[in-house]
Amino acid sequence: MKTRTKQPGANARPARATRAVVYPAFTQTGPDSPAEGTRPMYLYLRLSKYHKDKADAIERQRLDLTRKLAAEGGWTVMGEYIDNDSASVSAAKNRKGWRQLNQDIQAGTVPAVAFWKLDRTNRIAAKCIEWIGQCQRSGVYLVSHQDSADELNTATAGAKLVTGIKALLAEVETDSMSERQLASKRHLAEAGFHHGGTPPLGWMAGPRVVDEFGRSGVRLVPHPVEHPALKDAVDMVLAGKSLAQIARYWSDQYGITAAAGGPVYEATVYRSLVSPRMIGYRMRQVPEHQRGVKLDLLDYIARDASGEPVIAQEPVCDRATWLRVRRLLEEAKTSRTRRPWGSHEWLLTGLLYCQCGERLYGHQKYRKRASGERVPVFAYRCQANKVRGPGNCSGGCTIDAVKGEAFVLGWFFAQITDDALAAARARRRAARADVGINEVLSQLDEARAERDVLLSKQGTGEYRGAMVTVLLSLIADAQRRVDGFQRRLDAMELDEFPIEDGPALIASWKERAITEKRTYLRRMIHRIDALPGNAPTEERLRITPVE
Description:
This is Recombinase domain-containing protein. InterPro entries: DNA_bind_recomb_sf (IPR038109), DNA_bind_recombinase_dom (IPR011109), Resolv_N (IPR006119), Resolvase-like_N_sf (IPR036162), SSR_resolvase (IPR050639), Zn_ribbon_recom_dom (IPR025827). The chain contains 18 helices and 13 strands. By secondary structure, it is of the alpha/beta class. α7 (226-238) packs antiparallel against α8 (243-254).
């Protein structure tokens, strides 16, 4: 049976750059034991930059060292440790050959090491001198093609002085090159020029131009396929589409795929949409990602001499729209609400409220039939007594999920008539005219910050006894303001109501993702109040439509 491999799309993204030649940390190139009358020698070969190196420098270092050792005589080359990493900060992490060499030195299996020049081992003076001292204490003999063996292997003050000066000069050279490169990149960033590497998704390198100060460089210009795809992705996020749906849409409509031919990774879509590049900003010195550390990318944009953000390329959308997109993506990523599990979708999460003021969340349990079979039962249940302590909710409200969702959907489908949709559009226009989106966003952020500060004070010594009740009321008030601003923002997110054709929406309802379904419900429903008791579900649910 033949296996079919998926071919890349017409606009496949490039794969991650790889080394031209990949070396193992250690390779045994000589015999198991040195020739009679000789001592074992191990080579350390390093190239600072691996991009398109073709291993030429590694071969040159190997040839120079083997010739030198052969001329001296008395040595048998047993193996070699090789690094062809970059000359950046990441080199400290990627130098597997260097780590393996030092482990073998500590284990006592390497009696002698040959390298082309001292700065191939380390370009930081203090660490270089420390390593030479460790080798001397371990009895490891050092040979360099460019440096004197006496300076490396003697413990005299003069030898240490010469070795230290050379190591310091190597470090100064590295610092000087780094300063020149940083200055060059700073000017490129200020001018809005691209300084190499894979262009970000949505743009490509344009022609070389000269700015008003005489600096020449290349700016990014919109990619004919990827830039329109990003615009469509913005609309899809605002309509409640998932990242997976966006990736599939890109593959089907634009032929944008990963290098192997499958849909673009969701993480790639996410990083592209939350990047300030979407509004034309030029990124500058973004720190390396660390698990658990959240960065605000707006803190790492290039600015001109007056401190204003540099607009380096044509934006995909305006700032207000991008902030809404970023907020929606971050909320979906960090949501603390319960996620769907099993075979049930929790459609009403965030809409159902108990009489105590708390939301109802999905709860799954099992019920035994007369036959002994265990069947799952899904319900929405008030969590106030569990989260805030006993006595906070006297009703203990629980709503059967299947019956409750059927009732709400029945009401929703009955509302999406032409007249109801026209009224909803009018309400949206009135909401947009009330206040600017940026102002609502600012107020929402302030309310969330206040709520988070209050939540952090729970369980501390600042609020004790009767003050705990005061703290809880402050938290509840902050949460109410957050909910109010959120509802106002939801009403302003699209210029037009997203439901254009009610019957078409009803016909395609089952095929839509849970996020889309929730988005549509929120366009029509402000909240659903649930009453406790054993009355029929339709009598216990009170739907408040969006005003």
